[in-house]
Amino acid sequence: MIVSGRNNVKEILKNFKEKNMIKKVICSKNFNELDILSLVKKRNLEVEYKEKFELDKLAKNNHQGIILITSDFNYTSFDELMSSDPKKLIILDHIEDPHNLGAIIRTVEASGVDGIIIPKNRTVSVNETVMKTSVGALFNVKICQVTNLNQTIKSLKKYGFWIIGTDMDGEDFQSVKYPDKSVLIIGSEGFGISRLVRESCDYVVRIPMNGKINSLNASVACGIMIYELIRK
Fold first, then answer.
1. Which pLDDT does position 153 carry in this prediction?
2. Are 188 and 96 in contact (CB under 8 A)?
3. What does the pLDDT read at residue 123?
4. What's the confidence (pLDDT) of residue 170?
5. CB–CB of 46/109 below 8 Å?
6. CATH T-level fold of 78-231
């Protein structure tokens, strides 16, 4: 996977623990960010210097003069996630926009929510755009990929979690008292939460809309709900 941008690169260099995760460091010939180069040296990584146009061909996003070639993102298993004794989790029910996923990851990290669960199919996975949008938060958040969301929800209930779905015809989100162990479900951009997932929810809540539009961007809705969950 290609990772570009100074914040993303710096965060990875500071936090990565997997041996051989970083395959290659590529910098433009005039790159002079001493704090990043110091981290590269500390990690005993060699730098390959190239012309800017060569980096332009490699990176989809604005690389800011540095690119890492890394192994694929290492997802957390469900058992590993449960062993960390989480209290607040987010389930993303088939989110497709990588910018939404990246923004949600950033909010989850900033708020201290314990992790994110996503399905393996029909959803965006962690890619370069997600990394770029998360602005370095990605490597501080546990992300679990599961085969079946409904089976995962049943398992979460056995661990004592209450399941909170979001939908336009739910209760006002400010009127609900959220349990200590809660899972918040955010639906896809076009269809919301799926029928079977909704049927598994203990609560279904909505954010009141007072304007002419009837829905919020998924990452914005998730941010509002996360902080209400924490506040309550």
1. 96
2. yes
3. 85
4. 83
5. no
6. Alpha/beta knot (3.40.1280)
Whether the predicted model's global pTM rises above the 0.85 cut: no
Which regions of the chain are under pLDDT 70?
17-19, 136, 212-215, 232
* The CA-based dihedral angle spanning residues 41, 42, 46, 50, taken in that order and rounded to the nearest 10 degrees: -50
Q: Extract the tokens encoding 139.
A: 């490597």
Structure tokens at 111: 């708020």
Tell me the one-letter amino acid at 192: G
Main-chain dihedrals φ then ψ at residue 200, nearest 5 degrees: -90, -5
Dihedral angle sign, alpha carbons of residues 147, 153, 155, 161:
positive
Q: The CATH number of 2-70 is which of 3.10.450.350, 3.30.1330.30, 3.40.190.10, 3.40.50.2300?
A: 3.30.1330.30
Query: From CA 41, how far away is CA 25, in angstroms rounded?
Result: 11
Query: Taking the chain, what is the end-to-end CA distance rounded to the nearest angstrom?
Result: 39
Residue 181 · residue 162 · CB < 8 Å: yes
- Spatial distance between the Cα atoms of 221 and 187, rounded to a whole number of angstroms: 10
Please tell me whether residue 154 adopts helix, strand or coil conformation. Answer: helix
**Cα dist. 25→15, 43, 45, 58, 172 in Å?**
16, 11, 7, 12, 49
